[in-house]
Amino acid sequence: MNHFKSDRGAVLVRNNNVEKAMRILKKRLTEDGLFNELREREGYVSKGEKKRHERAAAKRRNKRDLEKRMIEKGY
User: Fold this and answer.
1) Cα 29 vs. chain centroid, distance in angstroms?
2) 3-state DSSP call for residue 3?
3) Residues 51, 65: contact at Cβ < 8 Å?
4) Strand, helix or coil at 15?
5) Which is deepest, 24, 38, 57, 69, by most CB within 10 Å?
6) How much is the pLDDT for 11?
7) Cα(9)–Cα(19) distance, rounded to whole angstroms?
8) Whose CA is closest to 29, among 45, 11, 55?
9) Exposure class string for 21-34: b at 16+ Cβ within 10 A, else e
10) Domains of the chain: which residue ranges?
């Protein structure tokens, strides 16, 4: 069995399904914040721009959570 080691363990490739293993790995790395950290290190970001990004991310999270709650309630 092939596997890729990360901080949170290994991602197993089952039945030669590499695409699924890649999705799992990408999800884990996203949850760990690796992609955000890489994006931040690309260049200088001013305080105002950083705040705008944080506000936009918060809006996206709130919208996603609201949509989830609406679906759960049956709206």
Assistant:
1) 7
2) strand
3) no
4) coil
5) 24
6) 85
7) 18
8) 11
9) beeeeeeeeeeeee
10) 3-73
Contact between 14 and 1 under an 8 Å Cβ cutoff? The reply is yes
Per-residue confidence (pLDDT) for residue 6, from 0 to 100:
47
Cα–Cα distance measured from residue 56 to residue 66, given in angstroms and rounded to the nearest whole number: 15
Residues of the chain with pLDDT under 50: 6
One-letter amino acid at 51 equals: K
Task: Give 16-56 as a DSSP string.
Answer: T-HHHHHHHHHHHHHHHTHHHHHHHHTS---HHHHHHHHHH
| pLDDT of 3 | 54
pLDDT for the residue 8: 61
Residue where the block lists tokens 């290994």:
10
